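#struct-help
A.M.: can someone run this one for me? Single chain, 394 residues.
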Amino acid sequence: MDNKGDADMISVNVLTCDCISQVKEKILDAMYKSRPYSNRPSASSVDLDLRAGKHGHLVLSDIDNTSKTVNNWRQLNTLEHFKIKDGATVSLIHRANGRHSATVGQIVTNTNPVYENTINMDAKYGFNAEDSNLEKGAQPWHLVKDVDPLEDEQRNSRRKNKTGSIYRRKLKTIHEVHFPRLMSTKTTIQKYVDGMFRAMLKAPSDDSDISVPVTIKYLFDFFDAQAEENDAGQAMAKTWKNNSLGQRFWVTVITHPNFIFDILQTLPVEAALKIIAETLLDSCSVEAIKYTKDTSTNRLLYTREVPKYREYVNNFYSSIQKMPTAAKNFLNEELECVNENFLNQFSHLSTLQLLYNYADRDRKALVDTLDREMHLDLIDQFEKVQLAFQQDQD
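D.P.: on it. Structure tokens below:
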């Protein structure tokens, strides 16, 4: 990073097919790997300069006056486009305040560190669209075009079925190359995936320190009781458990690690994590999944591991069911501890308003259920709450 003449030299591995924003991201990752992502400068806040010796500093950009444009498609510039070879020296320069038009050969004269520490979430094309010199109406593309409008229109005009629906063109993947790479990547990370499943679904037992939150035990007992009371069966109870813990919590955590960690979640990472999340959902299914030739390649990656993970899930649910019943006072204590971690972060009145709106929307069904189950005290309390809200609105 060039800052007022000072520079730290580091070696970074990049690909010839990387666009300039991807190169900047990789350099920033190498420079700030020990920092949280929100404390790093974004790729859009710096310029990538090619050290050209006596010829000065050449600004490299995703889009400039040398970018190739064909049929309203403008290809992002890559290192191969600029014919940059191994061992080339580049530098990151803090961008001057304000946008500038990207032109090859522009001399950098301002190196003041002016930038905002924001996360660049425009990862669809691997570059910041707002920061590019992109002509109006031009479609940017990197290595593969999303959809060619002209070709798509011509194809659709020829391929309409009896109901008039349109066949959409799908991107073709070279499976002979794609699948072996998927398998190689899976082999590399398999031990970490296994460790994650064991950590998530570690069955609690009397002879270990493993335990589950009281809230989960209380909720699962409630599902079991409701399934028995309404003759829904254990399959329905398992479905409720899957939806509450597996789908609503763990799938969200797996597919959005940036909710917990201060990192940038790129589209390739998100796609890979979705495969693992789908594996968890298949492992939690009530009935064994039957895979066919039409099953997606991504879903077929973990077909051998799913039976093992299903056993983890079943043992986990069975162990929780065998745990002693959770007393309400322990539940309240745990909820109080959770609440202390979020003091002054949420509005109690706003939360109560949302709960009331939900109850008021299904008022009749709620009152009828409470009356049928002889919870007359709750009906009285609900009517008092209704009266209080009505008086407050008046």
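A.M.: thanks! Residues 256 and 265 are 8 Å apart (CA to CA).
D.P.: also worth noting: The first helix runs from residue 20 to 31.
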